Amino acid sequence: MTDSPVAVVTGGAQRIGACICKTLHQRGFNVVIHFNHSQQPAEQLTEHLNQQRANSAICLPASLNDNQSLNRFIAQAEQHWGRLDALINNASGFYPTNISEATEQDWDTLINSNVRGAYFLCQAASPHLAKQRGCIVNIVDIHGARPLGGYSIYSIAKAGLQMLTQSLAKELPPVRVNGVSPGAILWPDESHQDTALNTEQKQHILDKIPLGNIGRPEDIAETVAFLICSAPYITGQIIAVDGGRSLSM
User: Fold this and answer.
1) Which of 128, 146, 196, 208 has a Cα-to-Cα distance from 171 of 20 to 30 A?
2) Which tens digits make up the pLDDT trace of 15-66?
3) Which of 95, 119, 151, 154 is catalytic?
């Protein structure tokens, strides 16, 4: 068993997930980078972290739609270093769903990627986390509490993830379970037409943020690190990291 704590980060290959991996790695964690379709960036990040500190990162695939895949993923993650100290459920599907056009596939995709997969990962990981008095951090969304227009299934899924966080905080001690709710942190990927924003839409969002700017992935990663490393008496809480946006939603 390694002396270094071990963190599992779902969707850890890119964007906020990658920043969480780097931040925890800098804090001395060994990191398990989960990916589904993003194998190449996951392998590149793994190599980068291992260059900084040998044998400190691995990447493993798993489908959030398949419980057997999730169970196998957690087993492999725990067996590699002999311990699990933190699970960060960051993986998330995000795209609009107008109720007049939404399909069962949309429902399954967004619910599974945002809440179902997280639930069964918590189920698989919690016995290992309990041995280390570890913790779970779920990346929720401010729209889990106040819906985002045109994104009903996504908002429902994030509301479910918020309740999952609070429910499991009562069920899983000594494992602590908390959530981080980002506001506008990164603009959606402009290569995806369904979620890309134009200049006017971006300004409309900025006008509603008291601090007047979008956040950085580091703002989320540092909050995750705080909950894992510096908050032994905090559980069942959802911290909004949104520049004050949720004050006027």
Assistant:
1) 146
2) 999 999 999 999 999 999 999 989 999 999 999 999 999 999 999 999 999 9
3) 154
185: nearest Cα among 229, 144, 139: 139
241 forms bridges with which residues in the sheet? Answer: 182
Q: Supply 192's token pair.
A: 């995806």
Q: Is residue 31 within a helix (H) or strand (E), and if so which, with residue range?
A: strand 30-35
Residue 154 known to be catalytic: yes
- Per-residue pLDDT reduced to its tens digit, 123-146: 999 999 999 999 999 999 999 999
**SS3 track for 156-182:** HHHHHHHHHHHHHHHHCCCCEEEEEEE
- Give the integer Cα–Cα distance in Å for 225 and 217: 12
Q: Are 8 and 84 in contact (CB under 8 A)?
A: yes
**Sign (positive/negative) of CA torsion 18, 21, 27, 30?**
negative
